[in-house]
C-alpha cells in the first residue's frame, strides 16, 4: 500500500527527531536495548536509572494510549511460544553483547557513519534475512 | 537534578513509541516482511530507517557546533573504531532472533501493553537474555 511507505517515512523522521532531541538534550545516543537493559540492571553505567526508567515509561505508555484512542497498527506475534522464547533470548542477549540494536547502532551509528554502527547494522540485517528463512524452513512462521 | 533531565527522557520515549506505532514497526509481520527478501518483500522498514537516519544525521551536524548538551552533559566523542568479535557475534544473534519473531528491543517495549498476552513470553525472554550478558562480561 502506498500509504505504508509514507507513514513509514514520517514515523522514521520522528524516530530521528527523538534520537536528535536525546542527543542534543541529554548528550547521549538513544539506544533502546541499552536503556531497557539499564532499567533491570540499576548498577549499569551510562544514563542514570531514573532517566532510563522514564524513557521506557514513555516508550511503553504512549503506544498504549494511542491504541486506546484507536490509532496505529497493532502488534501480534506471528510465531508460537517456543519460537518466541528462542527469539527473545537471542534478541536480548545479542543486542547487549553487541552493545546496541536497531536504534543505537542503526539510527545513532549509521547516521554519523560510525564503523561499529555500520558493521553491526549490516550483520543484523543479513542475519535477520536468515532468521526469516530459518523460521519458515522449520515451519515456525509464515 | 533539573526538571529537563526528567521531562526529556519521558518525552523522547513517548515520541519514539508513537513513531514506532505510526510507522507500523510494532507489527512483526511488517518487520519480517522487510527481511523476507526472497518472499513478498515489504519495503516499509527501509523508509522508516531512511527517514530516521536522515534526521539524525542533521542532529549530529548540529551537535558538532556544541560541546555540551542542554542538560550540561558532555556530547559523545568520536565514534569508536574497534570492531571486535562481540560486535559481530552479538549482532548475528540479535539479527537471527529479530528475523524469527519480528521484534527488536524498541518495538518490543512499545508493544508491551498493546500486544496479546503470548507476546509477554518474548518480552520476558528478551529481558532474561539482556540480564544473561552479565555472565560473559
From TrEMBL, chain A:
<feature type="transmembrane region" description="Helical">
    <location>
        <begin position="118"/>
        <end position="139"/>
    </location>
</feature>
<feature type="transmembrane region" description="Helical">
    <location>
        <begin position="78"/>
        <end position="98"/>
    </location>
</feature>
<keyword id="KW-0472">Membrane</keyword>
<feature type="transmembrane region" description="Helical">
    <location>
        <begin position="6"/>
        <end position="26"/>
    </location>
</feature>
<protein>
    <recommendedName>
        <fullName>Sulphur transport domain-containing protein</fullName>
    </recommendedName>
</protein>
<feature type="transmembrane region" description="Helical">
    <location>
        <begin position="53"/>
        <end position="72"/>
    </location>
</feature>
<keyword id="KW-1133">Transmembrane helix</keyword>
<comment type="similarity">
    <text>Belongs to the TsuA/YedE (TC 9.B.102) family.</text>
</comment>
<keyword id="KW-0813">Transport</keyword>
<keyword id="KW-1003">Cell membrane</keyword>
<dbReference type="InterPro" id="IPR007272">
    <property type="entry name" value="Sulf_transp_TsuA/YedE"/>
</dbReference>
<dbReference type="GO" id="GO:0005886">
    <property type="term" value="C:plasma membrane"/>
</dbReference>
<keyword id="KW-0812">Transmembrane</keyword>
<keyword id="KW-0997">Cell inner membrane</keyword>
From TrEMBL, chain B:
<feature type="transmembrane region" description="Helical">
    <location>
        <begin position="115"/>
        <end position="136"/>
    </location>
</feature>
<keyword id="KW-1133">Transmembrane helix</keyword>
<dbReference type="InterPro" id="IPR046513">
    <property type="entry name" value="DUF6691"/>
</dbReference>
<keyword id="KW-0472">Membrane</keyword>
<keyword id="KW-0812">Transmembrane</keyword>
<feature type="transmembrane region" description="Helical">
    <location>
        <begin position="85"/>
        <end position="103"/>
    </location>
</feature>
<feature type="transmembrane region" description="Helical">
    <location>
        <begin position="44"/>
        <end position="64"/>
    </location>
</feature>
<dbReference type="Pfam" id="PF20398">
    <property type="entry name" value="DUF6691"/>
</dbReference>
<protein>
    <submittedName>
        <fullName>Membrane protein</fullName>
    </submittedName>
</protein>
Amino acid at each position: 500500500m502506498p500509504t505504508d511507505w509514507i507513514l513509514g517515512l514520517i514515523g522514521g523522521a520522528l524516530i530521528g527527531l527523538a534520537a536528535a532531541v536525546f542527543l542534543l538534550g541529554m548528550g547521549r545516543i538513544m539506544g533502546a536495548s541499552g536503556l531497557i537493559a539499564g532499567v533491570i540492571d540499576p548498577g549499569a553505567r551510562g544514563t542514570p536509572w531514573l532517566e532510563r526508567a522514564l524513557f521506557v515509561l514513555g516508550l511503553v505508555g504512549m503506544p498504549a494510549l494511542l491504541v486506546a484512542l484507536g490509532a496505529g497498527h497493532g502488534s501480534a506475534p506471528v510465531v508460537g511460544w517456543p519460537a518466541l522464547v528462542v527469539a527473545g533470548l537471542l534478541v536480548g542477549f545479542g543486542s547487549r553483547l553487541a552493545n546496541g540494536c536497531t536504534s543505537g547502532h542503526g539510527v545513532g551509528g549509521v547516521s554519523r557513519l560510525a564503523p561499529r554502527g555500520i558493521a553491526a547494522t549490516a550483520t543484523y540485517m543479513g542475519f535477520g534475512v536468515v532468521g526469516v528463512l530459518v523460521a519458515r524452513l522449520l515451519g515456525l512462521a509464515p | 537534578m533539573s526538571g529537563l533531565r526528567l521531562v526529556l527522557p519521558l518525552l523522547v520515549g513517548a515520541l519514539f513509541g508513537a513513531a514506532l506505532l505510526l510507522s507500523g514497526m510494532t507489527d512483526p509481520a511488517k518487520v519480517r516482511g522487510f527481511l523476507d527478501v526472497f518472499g513478498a518483500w515489504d519495503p516499509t522498514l527501509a523508509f522508516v530507517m531512511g527517514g530516521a537516519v536522515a534526521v539524525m544525521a542533521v542532529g549530529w551536524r548540529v551537535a558538532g557546533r556544541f560541546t555540551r548538551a542542554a542538560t550540561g552533559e558532555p556530547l559523545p566523542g568520536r565514534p569508536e573504531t574497534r570492531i571486535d568479535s562481540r560486535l559481530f557475534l552479538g549482532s548475528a544473534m540479535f539479527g537471527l532472533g529479530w528475523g524469527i519473531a519480528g521484534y527488536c528491543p524498541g518495538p518490543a517495549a512499545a508493544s508491551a501493553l498493546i500486544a496479546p498476552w503470548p507476546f509477554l513470553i518474548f518480552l520476558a525472554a528478551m529481558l532474561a537474555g539482556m540480564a544473561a550478558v552479565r555472565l560473559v562480561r
